[in-house]
Amino acid sequence: MAQTPSTMLPLGTFAPEFSLMDTVTEKTLNLQALKGDQGTLIMFICNHCPFVKHVNEEIARLGKEYQEKGIAFIAVSSNDVENYPQDAPHLMKEVAKEEGYTFPYLYDETQEVAKEYDAACTPDFFLFDADLKLVYRGQLDDSRPGNGIPVTGNDLRNAMDALLKNEPISEDQKPSIGCNIKWKASP
Length: 187
Description:
With 187 residues, this protein is an alpha+beta fold. The chain is 27% helix and 22% strand.
């Protein structure tokens, strides 16, 4: 299980626009239509990564809690499905239903969205304010598979709470750790 850290996109970066297929509804959705009134969380995840599996329940719980408060949740999988067929769109749809995702689970077939966000691992979290300006990037919390620390979502939860209260978000943010995004081989 390779441990790859987030690249930590600079705070203040504006969210790159995208239009991707939602594997649950099979409709093409774009960032402008999905963004939240108070903020937008974009998560790069996938089906097979043990780091994502470890936090899936908390991601679903946070989605239910914070979507009601005006923060949109968007999950994106950018993995190469040719070499990692367990991350294929039809299986993404199954995982979304099994895990109780209340947010879109988008498929980034070209991997362009992951490149534009400088995403490096799964899970990788990017929280934007109402103007789609990056205010938090990094880990969900300190829990990792096998380290014995409970999954709480504290780091991300604290950032979302501060955003909702219009309070400053600490710039001391820890990178997420997870499996590297499975990039397609260059032609």
